[in-house]
Specification:
disordered N terminus, 10 helices, mainly alpha, 0% strand, globular
Length: 248
């Protein structure tokens, strides 16, 4: 007799073999980012880029919310589950831009005359800082990808495959707009609670041609990163299926 799998097909639980390795990589990358920044501060006696730590902490928040949502989907049912998904989904959407926002911190290198293409390029510190900023940016993109993947699976589970991919496209460009509000308008996720009128004014200010261009640019970045990493998951599934067929 074959054993029946009680889990809903396409649920986040079915992809635990994907979530776990990426999560461990994220933890390791986070530790590496903090360590490299600490080494820099120790040798130069300067905490110049300390803001990266705060931004990295904020980038972890949407993943934490997404993991809570996955847990709620496994253990809750009925109206309680619907309410939980509504609250957690809203919180995640507000926090999500903090993850891709880390990529915009590269502007601190681009806009710094110390890093202009001249004799300074021979300094190891220049390249060290470049690696540090790249690792922080990459960690932010991975955090955004994994948290979005959790909600993609939840939407697909309850609303179907088409709704799942529509969700990804919409959230990608909403995330791009959120990055614009954070970097250019200087809004924060918690402004929705503590400064709602400032948030409304900021959103209105962001609805111009510059905001549209920025949103399109970063929305495409978020979407391409998600599609690229998702395609790697697809290749892994094909390889696993081929190995299983050979073993039969």
């Amino acid at each position: 007799m074959t054993r029946t799998n009680s889990r809903f097909k396409g649920s986040p639980a079915d992809d635990s073999d994907v979530f776990a390795p990426v999560f461990y990589v994220l933890c390791g990358t986070t530790v590496l980012c903090v360590a490299m920044l600490a080494v820099r501060a120790f040798h130069l006696d300067s905490a110049r880029f300390h803001f990266l730590l705060w931004n990295l902490f904020l980038a972890w928040l949407p993943l934490i919310v997404a993991m809570v949502a996955v847990g709620a989907a496994r253990w809750m049912r009925g109206p309680a589950l619907a309410l939980a998904m509504l609250v957690l989904g809203g919180a995640w959407l507000l926090l999500y831009p903090n993850a891709p926002y880390l990529t915009t911190d590269l502007i601190h290198l681009i806009g710094n005359p110390t890093y202009m293409w001249n004799a300074q390029q021979q300094s190891v510190l220049v390249w060290y800082d470049l690696v540090v900023f790249f690792l922080f940016s990459w960690c932010g993109l991975l955090l955004g990808y994994l948290s979005m993947l959790h909600f993609h699976m939840l939407v697909r589970r309850f609303m179907g495959r088409f709704a799942g991919w529509l969700f990804i496209v919409v959230v990608s460009f909403l995330g791009g707009f959120g990055v614009y509000l954070g970097r250019m308008i200087r809004l924060n996720s918690w402004d929705v609670v503590f400064s709602p009128f400032r948030l409304i004014e900021g959103v209105r200010a962001g609805l111009d041609h510059r905001g549209a261009k920025f949103t399109l640019l970063f929305g495409m970045l978020i979407l391409i990163v998600y599609l690229s990493l998702s395609s790697l998951r697809g290749l892994k599934s094909l390889r696993t299926g081929a190995e299983n067929s050979r073993s039969v």
